């Protein structure tokens, strides 16, 4: 390759990377609002030709995989930044929930059918970088005695992930504010994991008596 052709190659590569980034931004934004949007509509949103989108992503599935990879990398970076290895496991779980909630709400596409994989195993593998960190945290809490040891870590992880999706859906439906849903997610995640939780707190004392739970 000549010295003159190298700058042109670098420029083409940089142009392609910018085009990919613009296309992904447009797809994330549009599919978050309209999960059924077509590749043509995504191209229009990005301000590029349909052929350009297909040049970068051979199919809709390829585009969705790229979206998952991009968002997953951002979530992993956010989780690593909050340091899940220090302090109590319960406090670390709170930090995990807060960081996850910020990203979950930032990307409504994560809660749409567009992100649902027809292959459960593939979907599981896509989320491993995130769920592995949560699994390690839950197991640390179980070893320290902070979290329930008689409940499988995998079940707790699945329950926490489901709570996050539920919180997002409550906001989307207009049933909760962003702040309230985030708080509910964090506290609910801690509640299902921690050992010293009285199922009948002060607000439920009357119900406990009515149920005969105080016998």
UniProtKB/TrEMBL annotation:
SUPFAM superfamilies: Homeodomain-like, Tetracyclin repressor-like, C-terminal domain. Gene3D superfamilies: Tetracycline Repressor, domain 2. One of its GO terms (molecular function) is DNA-binding transcription factor activity. InterPro entries: Homeodomain-like_sf, HTH-type_TetR-like_transc_reg, HTH_TetR, Tet_transcr_reg_TetR-rel_C_sf. Keywords: DNA-binding, Transcription, Transcription regulation. It comes from the Bacteria. Residues 17-75 form the HTH tetR-type domain. Residues 38-57 bind DNA. The keyword Transport does not apply. The keyword Phosphoprotein does not apply. Pfam families: TetR_N. It comes from Micromonospora pisi. This is TetR family transcriptional regulator. PROSITE patterns: HTH_TETR_2.
């Amino acid at each position: 390759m000549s010295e003159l052709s190298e700058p042109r190659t670098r420029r083409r590569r940089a142009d392609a990377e910018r085009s990919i980034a613009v296309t992904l931004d447009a797809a994330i934004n549009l599919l978050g609002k309209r999960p059924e949007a077509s590749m043509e509509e995504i191209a229009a949103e990005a301000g590029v030709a349909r052929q350009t989108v297909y040049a970068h992503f051979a199919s809709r599935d390829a585009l969705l995989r790229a979206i998952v990879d991009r968002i997953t990398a951002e979530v992993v970076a956010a989780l690593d930044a909050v340091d899940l290895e220090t302090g109590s496991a319960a406090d670390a779980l709170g930090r995990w929930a807060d960081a996850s909630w910020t990203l979950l709400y930032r990307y409504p596409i994560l809660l749409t059918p567009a992100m649902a994989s027809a292959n459960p195993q593939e979907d599981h593998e896509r989320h491993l970088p995130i769920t592995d960190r949560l699994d390690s945290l839950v197991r640390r809490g179980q070893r320290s005695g902070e979290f329930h040891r008689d409940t499988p870590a995998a079940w707790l992880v699945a329950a926490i992930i489901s709570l996050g999706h539920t919180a997002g859906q409550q906001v989307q439906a207009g049933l909760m504010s962003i702040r309230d849903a985030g708080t509910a997610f964090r506290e609910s995640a801690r509640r299902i994991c921690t050992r010293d939780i009285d199922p009948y707190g002060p607000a439920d004392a009357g119900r406990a008596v009515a149920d005969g739970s105080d016998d």
